[in-house]
Amino acid sequence: MTESSRDKFFYKCKLLYYKWKWIFDVVKKPRRIRDLKRGYGIAKILSQNFYVPVSTDTPVPYADRIISEKWMEDLLRSLLNNKSVFIDVGAHIGQTMLKVKASQPLCRYIGIEPQKECVEFLEKLIKINNLENYHSVWAAAAPGGQTSSNLYIPRPGATSSTTAPEFMPQKYLHSESRTVPAISVDELKKSEKFDIDEISMIKIDVERNELSVLQGCDDVMKTDRPCILLEILPFENDTMFSSQVELKELMDSKQYEMYRVIKNKNLDHVEALEKVEKWPLAFQPGSRTRYYRDYLFIPEENAGRLNFSANSKLP
């Protein structure tokens, strides 16, 4: 059996497994059957209700009424206003999108997402909630000039994917590979379709390929000086180590300060922003990395003027 045939075989086995798992989950949780019948469920964020389209391919977190990363609501309320433009790189299934809407109702939102199934779900979410000035872009965020990228999906129905499987070789072993469009944040801003004057904030969650995305933000970081929220996991191999070193060097050259977002035990509030003095972030077995994997980069000239200060609680 060739390597390609073996990958296809393992992928088909995964497909069969997750189909049966979905049936089991529906039987175990009758609430999903009710939502399937009426075609939507309801998710609550900051006391606001949002409709969530429900079908047999609805992502599991929504089906379970789980809104992850609630702590982000604190940052969004502090860093955005109703005139802001928010770029969501790795928009996934729209949970950040709904947090932006709940935090600053008139803020503009553009989500970049390479996985077609997620983009289709985002469009349904935008439509069912009548979200004006909210858009999704089917593409992988990349350095300028790149027009396409290979996207790797670990299993059927997964809403996680990556364009850089070398950072997590075990997770993406026997994964499905697709060719998807690519666009840089700089190119997105220049697009006449969106008519963007200034980008206020960028969130990047791209399965450890953050450096590639930031290399496509060169012009925006020079002119717009947005705050940038990154999920950065501890390095576990030489490839990840080199990427983190280069990332920090890039942000230092752009005159950005780096802060670790410290959350409370329940991960539903931000307790403090702690200036990062030691980098890269080494992997420590058994450590609670979920508390310390999100970082906020702030332009040096703005760090002292925002409505919070380093090492202090947010208002």
Please render the helix and strand layout as text:
Blueprint: H1 3-28, H2 31-38, E1 40-45, E2 48-53, H3 60-63, H4 72-79, E3 85-89, H5 95-103, E4 108-113, H6 116-128, E5 134-138, E6 140-141, E7 148-153, E8 176-183, H7 185-190, E9 201-204, H8 210-215, H9 218-223, E10 227-231, H10 238-253, E11 256-263, E12 270-275, E13 294-299
Parallel strand pairs: 3-4, 3-9, 4-5, 6-8, 9-10
Antiparallel strand pairs: 1-2, 7-8, 10-13, 11-12, 11-13
Features:
315 residues, 8-stranded mixed beta sheet, 10 helices, globular, disordered C terminus
Could you please describe the fold and organization of this structure?
This protein has one domain: 3-Layer(aba) Sandwich (Rossmann fold), CATH 3.40.50. Helix 4 packs across helix 5. The relative contact order is 0.11. 32% of the residues lie in helices and 23% in strands. The termini are far apart. It is of the alpha/beta class and 315 residues long. The longest helix has 26 residues. The C terminus is likely disordered.
